[in-house]
Amino acid sequence: MSVINNIDKCFGFVREFGFHGPFAYHIDRAFYNDYVKDDLIISIIYDDRFWIEFIRTLEIIPGLNTGETKLHEIDPRRLQFYDLTLLDRKGRIFDSVEFIDYDDKILWYYSKLLRYHPPVLHGDLSKLRVKQGFMRLFRRKKKVSFL
């Protein structure tokens, strides 16, 4: 139960941006908490440690905002996953979070990333797309230059 309280303490602020949830469920050993806003999903997964995923669906999925449809029920081809750590390239936000417990640090880190970048919570993922595209291009050039 303390895991749920920690998650809501860190991510409860997303309700101010129109997110619903957390919708809690479990699959095998993993415990899921999803915050949903139309086509955006913040999924917090606990399986001996925390995993935070930021996802955009390719279309509005009925029942997702109410928790009737769970993330694992959606075909992965209809989802786009984004790496939120691209918002903290130099690791300054990660270094600013001080906790002894690593799990708490991860929760607060991702929470701070989202707090410091409200346009992401409104659905403006341009910062994530540009950096992802640049990184893909950089990797391609790097591979080609070694040939």
Per the principal axes of the C-alpha atoms, what is the gross shape?
globular
What's the structural domain tally? 1
Number of helices: 5
| Largest sheet, strands/sense/barrel | 5 strands, antiparallel
Written account of the structure:
- With 147 residues, this protein is of the alpha+beta class.
- The protein has one domain (2-145).
- Helices cover 37% and strands 24% of the residues.
- The protein contains five helices and five strands, in the order H-E-E-E-E-E-H-H-H-H.
- It has helices spanning 2-11, 92-96, 102-116, 118-121, 126-145; strands spanning 20-27, 30-37, 40-46, 50-57, 79-82.
- It has a five-stranded antiparallel sheet, with helices on one face.
- Strand 3 and strand 4 form a beta hairpin.
- Helix 1 packs parallel to helix 3 (102-116).
- It is globular and about 40 Å long.
- The model is unreliable at 142-147 (pLDDT under 50).
Summarize the structure.
The protein is α+β, with helices and mostly antiparallel strands. The protein has helices at residues 2-11, 92-96, 102-116, 118-121, 126-145; strands at 20-27, 30-37, 40-46, 50-57, 79-82. The chain is built from 5 helices and 5 strands; from the N terminus they run αβββββαααα.
